[in-house]
Amino acid sequence: MIRILLADDEHLIRGAMAALLSLEDDLEVVAQAATGAEALATARVVRPDVAVIDLQMPDLDGVSVAQSLAAELPSCSTMIVTSHGRPGHLKRALAAGVRGFLPKTVSSDVLATVVRTVHTGGRYVDPALAAEAISAGDSPLTPREADVLELALEGAPIDEIARRASLSPGTVRNYLSSAVGKTGASNRHEAARVARARGWI
Amino acid sequence: MIRILLADDEHLIRGAMAALLSLEDDLEVVAQAATGAEALATARVVRPDVAVIDLQMPDLDGVSVAQSLAAELPSCSTMIVTSHGRPGHLKRALAAGVRGFLPKTVSSDVLATVVRTVHTGGRYVDPALAAEAISAGDSPLTPREADVLELALEGAPIDEIARRASLSPGTVRNYLSSAVGKTGASNRHEAARVARARGWI
DNA sequence: CCGCCCTCATGACATCTGTCATGAGGAACT
DNA sequence: AGTTCCTCATGACAGATGTCATGAGGGCGG
């Protein structure tokens, strides 16, 4: 019997997934959590075999949870399910020791199969997401460029970005100009969108 | 027995919700769809009592589907479930004749209860979402301002917005300037974000 | 019929942004 | 020690953007 921890902030989805996994004879949902912190706390107590975690949760995101879990409970395999599969997330997740990565568009059979796969030490990444991640390529942005671009996401003017990054406005403009060139965009707002879509920030 | 049509592009969620609703004695999921168009086509054939529709789907969004359903199948009550509850969506949904509006954070009991409620002619809107919608207030934007601001969402330069809206660049700047004032933002990109957050576009 | 508002436009002006050249200081690698 | 890259900065310039004044035309309610 594979003992599963389920974490998802959407109660409806979580309950439904639990119902669905419980239909399988060899799977058992032993705990549920609605936030990242809750998931960690619960995992420490129940020590599940597999953790199925939603990528986006109110507090910690799924990758952070996975990272902590990998460190604290090496016997527990972590897999992530998500609605919005961005290439950057996949990379960060794999780096964090995640064994499975699935979009929520897969069928329940696949979910159950992957739970079994990661439990026996295997890995599984959704083929479509993997292809996207590969085609997106590595980020050409330097760390600082990425920082600044991230601050530009909300549409703030340069002066505010400069204050928040503790840089001079001129420097911010240089980084943004460089980032705009690398993304092929025509201004920083578009560049920020492109970079996010490719998982670079 | 209440006959239900379920539409959600996320296979996993849809299957799970179906499993969950089927646990109720008086509910029966008679059809499922993965896109808006599919939902409409299926509804015409199976004529369900209640349609449970996800707000965000690849092609038509949930509100458009609801609108068509209300016109074509008045006997079918429509309710919408969503991950991202923006006030604007709620307003549009109610205007389209939707009877129930729920975030996916609710429990399965609530879902089942609301299905029964809308089937008997009642209405149900999640209290938290309703409060948000009320506090967000009515949009101060004129229709044209909203159009232009929407085109600005992706960060396009003014000239492109002007082309896409078939306006002169000068006019676009006037509308945007006005919208920036009304949203209290410091540039059009921030204004677009604010307006979207408040459900104005 | 007369305001009032929305739509669309133009011109002028100040400011904000994007781009480029240039340079100092530091870390990493050879 | 030398090379290369990143970080951070300044100054200058062109072009994009935000703001304001102004006006023509149309629809709608009083």
UniProtKB/TrEMBL annotation, chains A, B:
Q: Name one GO molecular function term.
A: DNA binding
Which Gene3D superfamilies does the entry link to?
3.40.50.2300
Q: Which PANTHER family match?
A: TRANSCRIPTIONAL REGULATORY PROTEIN DESR, TWO-COMPONENT RESPONSE REGULATOR
Residues with the modification 4-aspartylphosphate, per the entry, are: 54
Q: Which Pfam families match?
A: GerE, Response_reg
Domain Response regulatory, residue spans: 3-119
InterPro entries (UniProt xref): CheY-like_superfamily, Sig_transdc_resp-reg_C-effctor, Sig_transdc_resp-reg_receiver, Tscrpt_reg_LuxR_C, WalR-like
Q: Which residues form the HTH luxR-type domain?
A: 134-199
Which key words are in the record? DNA-binding, Phosphoprotein
Record's protein name: Two component transcriptional regulator, LuxR family
The region annotated as signal peptide is: none
Tell me which Gene Ontology terms the entry assigns under biological process.
Answer: phosphorelay signal transduction system; regulation of DNA-templated transcription
